[in-house]
Structure formats: structure tokens, C-alpha cells
Amino acid sequence: MPTQVKICGLTRAEDVETAQAAGADFLGFIVEVKSARRLSVAQAAALIKDVKVNTVAVTGDPSDQLVADIKAAGFSHIQLHGFETLARVAEIARTGLSVIKAVPVDSRDEVALATDYSGAADLILFDAKPPKGAPKDAPRGGHGLRFDWSILTGAALPKQWALAGGLTPDNVAQAIRHTNAPIVDVASGVETSPGIKDAALIKVFIARAKELDRNG
Ligand SMILES: O=C(O)c1ccccc1N[C@@H]1O[C@H](COP(=O)(O)O)[C@@H](O)[C@H]1O
């Protein structure tokens, strides 16, 4: 079964088209949260108009109004990259949006704690933490940083989970072999600058992720 791919932090129609045509399974848009790739809901909604694959609005600690706006805009998924509690994740899941809960991890204990969310979220996304010394209000993701994948080894992982953080066309095959991730997620690793994707990098990333025959 090939690994699924999420291309995240899209801001341009041509990149959306490239990613979809190259076989991306999820397209991600950073919505109403601190980021160099930030879009409004309306801007992101315009980009997903003709998209046939899963569409993900990535945000953090959203208000009920923002969740409603994301649902009304037609996204299939909301990715929660903030400090949402288990109860809040469950509440957002009741809106009918599929929920991806992103959890920054750098230890086995944090991986174990993150899996608590699997009762409420449809998918857990393991990501790297922001750089050491970053201000408290720094963007919660999209830093191009990897975490030590070996902290996932032997962990009781949820059935649906994704690997993010510092993935690139050069390391994605190694990452899948190492972790057997069912889904891989990339933002900065296929860009020339934040939000500006490189068509060749998108194509190579997806081809390398999908050519591997992973278990399960
Ligand atoms: O990409 C951003 O700017 C961003 C901002 C706020 C929350 C999440 C964000 N991106 C997510 O970060 C991961 C990993 O990114 P990278 O490949 O290491 O650059 C990815 O899931 C994006 O969805």
C-alpha cells in the first residue's frame, strides 16, 4: 500500500494544480494563524474550488466561528496545530469536519501522550517542535525541522497517523522506511520560499513517497 502524501502551506493556484496532478492525497492551507504562509478562509476557499482530493485547513486554537467558516468553505479536514485539549478536539470533530490533531514531539513520552487524541481526532500528525529559543508566539509549524524518528519505534501508534517536520525529496524515502508512516506531510521541503512551491520538488517528493511498498 503506497504512503499517502499531504502537500501543505499552499498559497498559489498553480501549486495546487501541480500537487493534485502529481498525486497528492491531501492539500493543506494555513488559515488564520501566524505563518508566512497564512491565508484568509476566503483566499483558501478560492484555491480549493476545483480540488478533488482531501482539503485541509491548518489552524490553531480556532474559535467556533472559524471552525464554522472552515466547514462552510467546503474543506474536508481541519488540522489543529495549537494547544487544543482532548475535549476541544472532540467538540470540533462533532461539526462533521475530519480532524487532524498535530502534536509536536521530541520524546517517547510525548508520542505516548499524543496517541490519547486518537479517540477524538481522525488522524494524529507527529511534527517537530519549533526551534529552541523561538518566541512563545512563533508559528507552531512549517519550520523545516525534523525530530528524531526513532522515538516512534516500538510505540503503540494509532492506525491513522502522519509524519511531518523537515521532510524533503531527499529524505522522504528514508523517513518512510524508518517509520512506516502511512501519511507524510511536507511544507517547506518543496518550496523556494515560504508559500512558493517548486513544481519539480513537489513531483519528486510525491514520486519518491509513493514508489515504496510499505507494510500495512
Ligand atoms: O507551515 C506553516 O507555516 C505552519 C504554520 C503554523 C502551523 C503549522 C504550519 N505548517 C505545518 O508544519 C508541518 C511541517 O512543516 P515543514 O515540512 O517542516 O515545513 C506541516 O504539517 C505543515 O502543515
Automatic annotation (TrEMBL):
Protein name in the entry: N-(5'-phosphoribosyl)anthranilate isomerase
InterPro entries documented for this protein: Aldolase_TIM, PRAI_dom, RibuloseP-bd_barrel, TrpF_fam
Key words of the record: Amino-acid biosynthesis, Aromatic amino acid biosynthesis, Isomerase, Tryptophan biosynthesis
Q: Which GO molecular-function terms appear in the entry?
A: isomerase activity
Write the Enzyme Commission number(s) for this entry. 5.3.1.24
Which NCBIfam families does its entry note? PRK01222.1-1
Pathway(s) where this gene product acts: Amino-acid biosynthesis; L-tryptophan biosynthesis; L-tryptophan from chorismate: step 3/5
Q: Name one matching Pfam family.
A: PRAI
HAMAP family in the record, alphabetically? PRAI
- Of which family is this protein a member? Belongs to the TrpF family.
Q: What is the lineage of its organism?
A: Bacteria, Pseudomonadati, Pseudomonadota, Alphaproteobacteria, Maricaulales
Which SUPFAM superfamilies does its entry note? Ribulose-phoshate binding barrel
Looking at the record's lineage, which domain of life comes first?
Bacteria
- Domain N-(5'phosphoribosyl) anthranilate isomerase (PRAI): residue ranges: 5-206
Q: Which Gene3D superfamilies match?
A: Aldolase class I
